[in-house]
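Give me the fold.
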Amino acid sequence: MLTDPIADMLTRIRNANKAMHDTTEMPTSRMKEEIARLLKEEGYIKGYHVEKGESYDELVIELKFGRNRERVLTDLRRISKPGRRVYARKDRLPRVLGGMGTAIMSTSTGLVTSRMAQERGVGGEVVCFIW
């Protein structure tokens, strides 16, 4: 059975966050790097970098916690899956927790948040929800 690499990434971040780890690592891809970039821009993670490996490069994500070690990330959920793709038109973009969360979308201009998609007036595939 083939696994979904994006769902795998979100699961690794979710598990590391629940276990209060400072970092998590996974095999990298351009899509995963873009998701990490958006997570950093939205303030959900401290940072990320790519480490060169022998057989494959590894994406290392530094998780972010509050002052008293409370979690910044509550949950990540994969929406569009390989078995069932979910698309949103430009006039029906998703809102996560009434605007408190973030939806990451794959558009013709690359990976963007739903807020950026609304500003640009584009729709696309809803990759995941983060809050």
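The longest helix spans residues 5-18.
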